[in-house]
Amino acid sequence: xxxxxxxxxxxxxxxxxxxxxxxxxxxxxxxxxxxxxxxxxxxxxxxxxxxxxxxxxxxxxxxxxxxxxxxxxxxxxxxxxxxxxxxxxxxxxxxxxxxxxxxxxxxxxxxxxxxxxxxxxxxxxxxxxxxxxxxxxxxxxxxxxxxxxxxxxxxxxxxxxxxxxxxxxxxxxxxxxxxxxxxxxxxxxxxxxxxxxxxxxxxxxxxxxxxxxxxxxxxxxxxxxxxxxxxxxxxxxxxxxxxxxxxxxxxxxxxxxxxxxxxxxxxxxxxxxxxxx
Length: 277
Description:
Elements: H1 2-21, H2 24-40, H3 45-57, H4 61-73, H5 79-92, H6 95-107, H7 114-126, H8 130-143, H9 149-162, H10 167-181, H11 186-198, H12 202-215, H13 219-232, H14 236-251, H15 255-258, H16 261-276
């Protein structure tokens, strides 16, 4: 399931990036234009490569791969083509072919290519080669210039896939990410909370709930979330206090917020949890 979610996110991110550059209709128009150019110069490998990239952006992976292979058969030896072949195989779910292609790419003066090492790590992850994936992604973390929160999160996923008990290493990765990207990187702080809870670090997890209460608005929701956790770890008195703080926070909201569906639902959830304590 986790692998499928990550793959879907990769495709969504690729699609969104493509949509920012070309709209769906514009992509179709550009594909048609490129097809016309190919009909006029059918031996030009550059045109097949360019249309292949457009097909890939259009999420037509079979057609993209056909154009990439045609471009190669016509003499395109640019290593960028080898990377695209690997990438489109990965997107299409042909991980063994993707690994073969990215390995060939990295063997040709690409061993220090961070983008290629990341793709290699993602392919290895899908193939269940978690230790090798972890090794490749460690290089990405150490060398990527524009590291993003999702890179840190993906690295954590690989750490835990390789050893689901290695919460400490995952937490270390999150802490390093927070130092690099800033302490208020929400997605990393949320993952930190999950890791602290899953590793049984109760007091640190409670401190993490307090962090959200101090740093973010809508404290009523965080008081309720903290109360749920306190109830889970059998600390009902503290849970009741947190629920009362949630209720008090709601009472101080403007009327327009009090009547929001999310707040009305939260009030019912608070009542339900209070009844269980």
